[in-house]
Design a protein that fits this description.
The complex is a heterodimer of chains A (115) and B (331). In chain A, 19% of the residues lie in helices and 43% in strands. Chain A is built from one helix and nine strands; from the N terminus they run H-E-E-E-E-E-E-E-E-E. In chain A, the strands form three sheets. Chain A has a four-stranded mixed β-sheet, with no helix packed on it. The radius of gyration of chain A is 19 Å and the shape is globular. The N and C termini of chain A lie far apart (44 Å). By secondary structure, chain B is of the alpha/beta class. In chain B, helix 3 links the parallel strand 3 and strand 4. The relative contact order of chain B is 0.20. The chains are: A alpha/beta (115), B alpha/beta (331). Chains A and B meet through strand 5 and strand 8 of A and loops of B.
């Protein structure tokens, strides 16, 4: 292999390697759940870019459901729940608490805006 | 001084039929036609018990203990529904209540008080065969522990005049799920029936994805419906969505009932799940009960459905509302 071909091959490998590294460390977004709200209640995401949601409950067990993001998890108190999602489509999607947490449960939601 | 109101005049109801099914008079199709009788007998032999006509009533979402802007009248609609059922010329065989019997409360002892109040009002029904399932407001906070203490098991099955009834609990695990244990029980429970047996499932939440972002779904509802798929005469009655809704999946017909507290809007038209505001001119608008009449036509059991909306024209308007709140006393 000539030096120029070797350099080209290394360059290709390098270019392929960097995106893999990027995918291994998705951006983290901290979301706190407490009766009867999520904080923040609006989250911006990029289509095709994975993010890890770090979910914490300040009181009782909550849930987070968003079918468009294939997201359905419990958020028990006393621990962090980590879920990685990769939005496959743009749009605004409502996520809800789907673990009954009391009288205001029906209004506990947040908005994912995927661009 | 306003004229005192006769409590009986409060009992006006209006009825409408829903969907393609007509309202069948109990017994109209059976016992007259010899060919029909033969088919009924054959069906009975296949199912183990002959299907004979009867009617039953579905009530839902009474939310005893709720008081707020969408309905400042508390249990009045529930009490009115009880009187309406008691006034039916032919009493139903049984009453099904599809969840949210009470509104949740975390005040010590209050949840039990509300459940007892539900029992007291339901106890006024002339029909004593009342079957209930929990809603999330009854059982979502404590895993159904108190509900089971007061009302008994949250899932069960029974047979009545050739129809198999299945009560499913899709609320007490906090999330909208039936759960693997109950699904295994259901599979075993249904195994002894032929595929022609009429089956009525009653539960709180829809067993299909009606509107997941409003929590109008059951996560493992597909598994339940797969078990029911071979059965040709399946009706699923549910509540939770506080409005009439009809949906067909395979052989199964899914019917949601109005509530007895307040109504939610049409999810196809509304952005948010906000209760329809209280209308003082029509305090029981969109609230009601459902009557179901089982008959047999040809070889098929037919479940006729009547939707009954409560009305109280005498109590419309500010004066009427005050009268309701004061227990029908004259002002």
């Amino acid at each position: 292999m000539t030096p120029s071909k070797l350099a080209a091959a290394l360059l290709c490998l390098g270019l392929a390697w960097f995106p893999i590294q990027a995918q291994e460390s998705p951006r983290e977004i901290l979301i706190t759940a407490k009766r009867f709200e999520f904080r923040p209640n609006e989250v911006q995401l990029k289509k095709g870019l994975p993010v890890t949601l770090v979910l914490n409950s300040e009181d009782v067990t909550h849930g987070l459901l968003c079918r468009a993001l294939k997201l359905d998890t419990d958020i028990p108190p006393g621990q962090s729940t980590r879920v990685t999602v990769t939005p496959g489509q743009t749009g605004t999607f409502t996520a809800i608490c789907n673990h009954f947490c009391g009288s205001g449960h029906g209004n506990m939601k947040l908005k994912f805006i995927v661009e | 001084m306003e004229k005192p109101l006769d409590r009986r005049s409060f009992l006006k109801i209006t009825g409408t039929t829903l969907g393609a099914g007509a309202l069948y008079q109990v017994g109209a199709a059976v016992g007259i036609d010899p060919q029909g009788m033969a088919l009924v007998d054959r069906l009975g032999r296949q199912n183990g018990e002959r299907v004979t006509p009867f009617s039953f009533v579905q009530l839902s979402d009474t939310h005893v203990g709720f008081e707020g802007p969408p309905n400042p009248l508390g249990t009045k609609a529930f009490e009115q529904a009880v009187e309406a059922v008691n006034a039916l010329p032919m009493q139903p065989d049984l009453i099904l209540v599809t969840g949210d019997l009470t509104h949740d409360s975390e005040k010590e002892g209050e949840a039990l008080t509300r459940m007892r109040r539900f029992q007291e009002i339901a106890g006024r029904l002339r029909v004593k065969n009342v079957k209930v399932v929990p809603g999330e407001h009854d059982a979502g906070l404590d895993g159904g522990q108190l509900y089971r203490t007061v009302f008994g098991p949250s899932h069960y099955a029974f047979d009545h005049r050739g129809v198999h009834f299945v009560a499913l609990d899709n609320v007490s695990q906090g999330k909208p799920v039936v759960g693997p244990e109950q699904i295994a029980w259901l599979r075993k429970d249904l195994a002894r029936f032929t595929h022609t047996t009429p089956i009525v499932v009653f539960t709180h939440r829809p067993l299909f994805d009606l509107k997941p972002e409003w929590e109008w779904y059951t996560g493992d509802g597909d598994e339940v419906m797969n078990i029911l798929a071979p059965y040709r005469n399946v009706t699923v009655l549910y509540g939770h969505i506080h409005r009439n809704q009809e949906f067909q999946s395979g052989h199964a017909r899914h019917l949601a009932a109005r509530s007895l507290i307040f109504a939610f809007p049409d999810p196809a038209l509304a952005d948010d799940k906000k209760p329809i505001p209280f209308d003082p001119s029509a305090p029981f608008k969109n609230l009601g009960i459902r009557q179901l009449d089982l008959s047999v036509q040809g070889a098929r059991p037919i479940l006729g459905v009547s939707e009954v909306e409560l009305s109280s024209s005498e109590f419309a308007g500010t004066i009427g509302i005050k009268q309701i709140l004061k227990g029908d006393e004259s002002l």
